[in-house]
Each structure stands twice: as C-alpha cells, then as structure tokens.
Amino acid sequence: MILTVTLNTALDLTYRVRSLRPDTSHRVTDVLERPGGKGVNVARVLAALGHEVTVTGLAGGATGDLVRAHLARTPRLTDALTPITGPTRRTIAVVSELSGDTTQLNEPGPQVSPSEWAAFLARYDELLPGASAVALCGSLPPGVPVGAYAGLVRAARTAGVPVLLDTSGEPLRRGVAARPDIIKPNADELAELTGSHDPLRATRDARRRGAHCVVASLGPRGLLADTPEGRWRATPPTLLHGNPTGAGDSAVAGLLSALTEQLPWPTRLSRAVALSAATVRAATAGEFDRGVYEEVLGRVVVTGEVSAA
Amino acid sequence: MILTVTLNTALDLTYRVRSLRPDTSHRVTDVLERPGGKGVNVARVLAALGHEVTVTGLAGGATGDLVRAHLARTPRLTDALTPITGPTRRTIAVVSELSGDTTQLNEPGPQVSPSEWAAFLARYDELLPGASAVALCGSLPPGVPVGAYAGLVRAARTAGVPVLLDTSGEPLRRGVAARPDIIKPNADELAELTGSHDPLRATRDARRRGAHCVVASLGPRGLLADTPEGRWRATPPTLLHGNPTGAGDSAVAGLLSALTEQLPWPTRLSRAVALSAATVRAATAGEFDRGVYEEVLGRVVVTGEVSAA
Q: Which residues form the Carbohydrate kinase PfkB domain (chains A, B) (predicted)?
C-alpha cells in the first residue's frame, strides 16, 4: 500500500454564489463537501487509479468526523488517522457564477498537543514497514514541531521506504535537509527555498540542499524534473483552462503511482502531467476527469537527457 | 417555560479576515461557532435573562449535532428539536478587520420529508400546553409547507398560549391571517406585507390583516407598536452603532420576557429596545452586553396613547 500523511486535514466546502460582493448577503445556491488536505487529495486520486492507499495524519472534532465518514466511503482507502481533540479546519471556496472567480477562506488548523503528536509518530512507525512509498503533504497545524517532516523523512529512509515531500516554507527547508527521495515544489515554493526564480538553477540548487530528485511544477506549462538518472521536461499537449485546485496533489499521485509500479521517470512525469490536466478540467474542484486523463496521457511531450552513468 | 420554534436552525460561523477581496485566498484569523436560527437566538437571550426556555424545531446532520451540543451547555435551556436526516445549514459571517464590513454567506436549508414534518407537529402539540408563550421565528426550509406558521399559530391559539410570529414573505402573509397575538416585522417585511412604506399606516394595515398586535422594528430608531391597548413608539436614548446581527431576535426575547411577566406594553417595549441596543453593542455578533442593557433600560423613551376602552 501507498501511505499518505496529512497533518492538517480539512473539510473542504465549495459554495456557489451568483457573485461575491463584500459587505452584502449571499444565498449559497450549491454546497459541495469533501475531505481535504493535500495528502488526503493525493490518496483519493491514488485510490481512484486502483492503488491500495492508507491515509494517516491528524483529525478531530465534528469536522474531523465528517472527513473520516467521507473517507470510509472511498474504495481501496484505509483510514489510519490519529484522533485529536482540536477540530479539523474547514476551507471554503466561494465560486462566483458570473465571473468564474474563486475566493478562498481557510480556517486555521487545530492546536495539537505533545501527546497527540507522540501518538501520531507511533502510528506512523507502525505503518511504514507496510508501505511501498510514502507522501508527506501540506502545512503543519499549530503545536506540530517545524522540523516534523525532517523527522518523518528520516524515519522513512531508515525503513527503506521511498518518501516524497510536498510542503512549503520552513517545514520544506528542514525536510529537504533530511534528504527525501522526491520533492514537488511549485515555482513559488522553489524560489522561496532556493532564492532563485530560474527553474533550472533552482531545481539543481534544491538537489544540492538534500533532495534526491526535484519535480518542479510549472503550472499549466507542466513539470521539470532533475534526478540522478537525468533531467526532463514534461509538457501537456495544450494549455488547459479550468480550476487548478488539487492539480498539484494529482501530480503527486501520478508520480507515486508510477514509482510504485517501477516505471521510468518519463512515464512517471507523463502520468503526473496527465492527471494534473485531468484535475484542472474536472467539473468539481479537486476531482479528476478520467476521459481527459486517458486522452492526454499519450500526448504529453517529455524531452530531456539521461545522465551519463 | 417559553417555547421557541426554529424550523431552519443554523450553525452560525463568524470568520475574521484582514480584508475580504474576491478572487484571492484568505487566512481566517479567528473562527467563532455558535448555534443559530432566529428562534434559537431568541431562546439564548431569554435563558440569559433567567427564563426557562424550550427550543423546538428541526435539526440534522453533523452541523445539527454541533448546534445541539452548544444548546446542551446553555443553562435554563431545554433542547426539544426534532431530528431530521438533512443537515442543518451553516451561515458564515466574514468580518473584514480593515473596513469593519460583514459579508454573509447563507447555505440553503435541508430538505424536510413529510414524515419529519409530521413528527415535529406531534412534538409541538405535546410542548404547547406547558408553554407560557411561543415564538415562531425565521425562514422555512425546503419541504415545509408555506402555510406552516399559520397552522402553528392556530394550534397555539386553540391551546390558549400567546403566540408571536417573526418571519417574512409568504409565510408571514399566511401566518398573519391565522391571527397571531404579536408580529414583529422590520420596515422591509412590513412594506412587503402591506404594500405601504409609511410605518404608521402599515402597522394599522397589518392589524387589519389579522395580527392582534404589531411591533414594527425601525432599526436604530427603535420600535413602533400598534395594539388594542394603545399605540406607542419606543426610542433608544442615543443612536448606537455596531453589528445589528441578532438585534431583532433580542427584541423578540424582550417582548416575550415582559409579556410572560405580565408587564404593560411600555415596559415590554423598553425591554425590547434595550436588549436590541445591547446586542448591537456586543463584541460578538448575536450576543448582548449586559452592562449596556441595564444602562439603556431606564433611558428608553416611550411615547404614545392608550386606546379608549
């Protein structure tokens, strides 16, 4: 099974309104509720692709119960979240019908106690030996140490489990130093980590800081990968317009899916780009359109050079 | 006990953000969660004033459970809500710190089935004989017949329990025809009911349509009452600025509180105006500031004429 870690799970709500106008009252015409947090999103895509996946991390309160109830209904997905007292945060995406704009409201994460964090670490150590790969995704809620991901990366490496890290800021900086197998920053995260806005230079620099492989997301322009096996650029066949929510999480799912099937890097990147495109084009934020995925998969252009062994 | 009916209960969330800007992402700095729906708000003010109060109506889902958990922690308040399958709606008030503006997002109410509605009616009939007064408050969720309040008014009158109706639109129009003891429309609701924007003329007309007494809210300018005993105008000592959320519900609580203590109309109106003012001035939307209440109470100006018997 593939293990995904979501320390800051979320109940993601999407509200449809006619047009969002500050200082007025709005009737929400449609409410969509789904489990969220980046690792949860990755897990749902992996499960939809046919993988057995286990979700661990932290969840609490009535919102945490709703997240877990949604997960319980997802085939091939096992809920191994550690319960906490503080309530799982809500995120609200307000979609204006007239403009198509999305306005995001993100609650702060719950306070996590030292004993809750210790309980999670024990659970993580139990789960690692059974995992073919692990993804560490998203922000840290209050109370979780800023070096949390560095410790989780080290534990995975000790257990011999390939580990992908997808976070930002100081947790990313510290996590990279613990030498994860893959990081998947977007352009902003990569620039914040390395100080460089040149993707080629920045991916190289991120590897020098400790990441074994760097897969940088260039948004609608695809992915750039720098690895010991070679460097590649994977580009979708056309610029796809739509809602980018969850596109990065789908890319992570694509990378892990192909990694656990021991496929070569160009195939991993094609799968990641096609899943991203299929997420951008899905009717519902964070879902992916299987038709688009299958149609795009064979048309992703991967160019690059294999390293001299 | 005083009975309040909330057919469309709500989980009221207040989000504080720095400044709400459409099509951007916001970190919510503070989340406040409280039980809502107009009848629930009325009940909480009545309980805070020292009255025994029973809350009935409809609640369901995880959001309904949260509403009920909050109510269970309120002294002097009994939860007699009828459970339904559909989830109680959320309302979100987004307060911008920079401007002080409030942007409201209201989810639609849950679908109510005929058997759920029948179960509520049976519960209401059981509760009525023990009530010293009943307040019917707020909107109707989908599935509840538009003439619902008219039926509830008639049942209260048959049981000899004074009944106050606080709603709008067609439910108000039909409810008024069933001859409630008191209605408490605001200026817009009164104009919609009667077609007149002149408060004096409109209150008179609303009585002609069936309401025994009409207490019209004139916002920061206080209340106008037209009753068989006389006509009065109650005005706060100063124009108070603040958040008007819940001010109307506090006025209803003031009217019911004084009515069940068999106090005369001018005292009822003073209490209603002082509670409204204390709600507008409270730090938290929908709460009331007891210091402001006590300070304003003796300074409300009531002018009017007693009817010739």
A: 11-285
Judge whether A93 lies within some domain.
no
Per the domain annotation, does B30 fall within a domain?
no
Q: B249 catalytic, yes or no?
A: yes
pLDDT in tens, B185-219: 999 999 999 999 999 999 999 999 999 999 999 98
pLDDT tens digits, A110-139: 999 999 999 999 999 999 999 999 999 999
User: Pick from B24, B99, B106: which is nearest to A26 by CB?
Assistant: B106
Residue B56 sits in a domain whose CATH number is 3.40.1190.20
CB contact under 8 A, B23 and A66: no
**Residue A29 touches chain B, beta carbons under 8 Å:** yes
Whether residue A26 and residue B105 make contact (CB cut-off 8 A), yes or no, is yes
Please give the residue range of the domain that contains residue A257: 2-7+38-85+111-306
Structurally, how many domains does chain A consist of? 1
The verdict on B31 touching A (C-beta cutoff 8 Å) is yes
Whole-angstrom distance, CA of residue B198 vs CA of residue B194: 10
| ipTM at complex level | 0.87
Indicate whether A278 belongs to any domain: yes
